[in-house]
């Protein structure tokens, strides 16, 4: 039996598989000692990698992005155990709400300023109209 030892990918090591086949779907994404796999395993369990891969319509083209998303979601869940990435979305939505308020306020001041400029220009052109 050919011993690959540490050549097994992180998923095959986690499954305690005897070998990691040369065409293992996970090897390119999760080499031995992969920190990404370790984070995903810790948060969601190692099975989620296979489940995610199995759910992809075009796994060969989509696996890299799907596994990157899993890793980022695991990061968010480690940072915010309650809300995960939804917590990040909530913070950004609040920032958007506040910035829209600021923009509305600035637009109001600008409109007022433009009215004053128009009024001053009118008075300057026709100084006797106010008498
Ligand atoms: Zn493998």
UniProtKB/TrEMBL annotation:
InterPro entries: LOB (IPR004883). Pfam families: LOB. GO terms for cellular component: nucleus. Keywords: Coiled coil, Developmental protein, Nucleus. Residues 7-110 form the LOB domain. It is found in: Nucleus. PROSITE patterns: LOB. It comes from the Eukaryota. Transmembrane segments: none annotated. This is LOB domain-containing protein. Belongs to the LOB domain-containing protein family.
């Amino acid at each position: 039996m050919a011993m690959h030892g540490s050549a097994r990918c992180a998923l095959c090591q986690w499954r305690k598989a005897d070998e990691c086949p040369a065409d293992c779907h996970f090897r390119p994404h999760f080499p031995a000692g992969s920190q990404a796999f370790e984070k995903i395993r810790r948060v969601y369990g190692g099975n989620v990698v296979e489940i995610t891969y199995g759910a992809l319509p075009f796994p060969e083209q989509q696996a890299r992005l799907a596994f990157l998303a899993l890793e980022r979601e695991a990061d968010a869940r480690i940072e915010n155990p309650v809300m995960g990435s939804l917590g990040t979305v909530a913070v950004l939505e609040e920032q958007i709400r506040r910035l829209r308020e600021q923009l509305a306020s600035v637009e109001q001041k600008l409109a007022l300023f433009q009215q004053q400029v128009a009024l001053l220009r009118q008075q300057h052109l026709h100084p006797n109209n106010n008498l």
